[in-house]
Amino acid sequence: MTKTTALHATHLRLGAKMTEFGGYEMPLAYSEGTIAEHLAVRTGAGVFDVSHLGSVEVSGPEAFARLQAVFTNDLARISAGRAQYTHLLDENGSVLDDIIVWWLEDTRFHVMPNAANTENVLANVGGDDITDSRTILAVQGPAARAYVADLISTAELPSKNRLIHGSYQGAPVIVSGTGYTGSDGVELSLPNEVAEECFLALIEAGVKPCGLGSRDTLRLEAGLPLHGHELGNGLTPLNARLDWVVKFDKGEFPGKVALLQQKIDGVSPLITGLTTGTRAPLRTGERIYSNQVEVGWVSSGGYSPLRKQGIGLGFLKADSPEPIYLERNGSMLAIERCAYPFAAMN
């Protein structure tokens, strides 16, 4: 059965087009459409309901050790009041999920997996699933902090990857300097009881409501990975050039041996940025060729409203020669490798 968030009825009243994602019915876009929402985040501010993401609370004297033993990043490099991006791997090194850990207090953590992967986290680290008891609003864009500062009572807003405790209308709010758009902004975790009021207050102040369609175009333009596309079965952090997420010197964790062997054998395929050089978008799943031989695939494709070109992330064999191309509609479409992020972030 498809789940809904506390804001589901609000999205419908605001005219959102809904879609299923990660087991939840979520807004895909509002009336002005995905490109308008995308540009609002790049130039002003947008607000996303991302309550479909999981939240698992892990607490107690053993909490740190439990998380440190299963994730790839090193929690010892941060402290309470910080957030850290990390991976959960299987023994073959494939990424079961990419996760944000909010270290709230000395022995209290919120582990935030992708929606469909919450059970994996519970099975590996235990804890309590609190997903349905709170709402997560991502307020993103160069003007996001100013709007949030007018609503949330707190001494100051957190800098990137930091956390603070505040309040909204007397209700407790966790404010995190995190996001998934490439633009500046914060994420708010607040009780469901005040979620609609806060969401509508942001919109009334001038923040544009945004759906998952623009969230995806924004993260792609920023070159950020999506689980099931750039991460997943058969793809390790090394394939995705996310070596910095793996701390081999922290001790043992699932998949470590496999990653060490992959480094010895040579990592292939490797992620790369791609562009058509025209307005023609790249399409997720398209196969990439060189000299009539398949050498890779497009893992995420689309169109960049800032660059005004088709862009994508894809995986190519390490020794793939130039030029590379797609086969589309019976003909060859030349594409180029390029650096990412695909546009300047703000």
Automatic annotation (TrEMBL):
Protein's GO biological process? glycine catabolic process; methylation
PANTHER family linked: AMINOMETHYLTRANSFERASE (PTHR43757), AMINOMETHYLTRANSFERASE, MITOCHONDRIAL (PTHR43757:SF2)
- Give the encoding gene's name: gcvT
Report residues binding substrate. Answer: E187
Domain of life of the organism in this record? Bacteria
Supply the InterPro entries for this chain.
Answer: GcvT, GcvT/YgfZ/DmdA, GcvT/YgfZ_C, GcvT_C, GCVT_N, TrmE/GcvT-like
Which species expresses this protein natively?
Ferrimicrobium acidiphilum DSM 19497
Recorded E.C. number(s)? 2.1.2.10
Q: Which family does it belong to?
A: Belongs to the GcvT family.
Instruction: Give this protein's Gene Ontology molecular function annotations.
Output: aminomethyltransferase activity; methyltransferase activity; transaminase activity
Q: Which UniProt keywords apply?
A: Aminotransferase, Methyltransferase, Transferase
The GCVT N-terminal domain covers which part of the protein? 7-250
Q: What's the protein name?
A: aminomethyltransferase
